[in-house]
Amino acid sequence: MILSRKEKNSLSEIDIDRIIEMAWEDRTPFDAIQFQFNLSEAEVKALMKKELKFSSYKLWRERVESCKTKHAAKRVEGIDRFKCNLQRAISNNKISKRR
């Protein structure tokens, strides 16, 4: 399912930036993006293709295809969180900046 025009317009620039950031991060699975923004893997790929330069998109796709941590089904058993416990710098998230 690809985003409709109405749904694309409902994403703010901050949301789009955060989705791109999460998609670039190897340890963040597509399930986390779906949980937070209600976007399927196909919708994330379409968004990345639209927002990135083609060469950047192509590099990202190659990396994602070979990355076992981007897909929850391919992850090592025992990893049940969406983010690394060492990750602290998440924009607009004050809780993560506490120690």
Automatic annotation (TrEMBL):
Its protein name is: TIGR03643 family protein
Please give the InterPro entries that the UniProt record associates with this protein. CHP03643 (IPR019882)
Write down the Pfam families for this protein, in alphabetical order: DUF2805
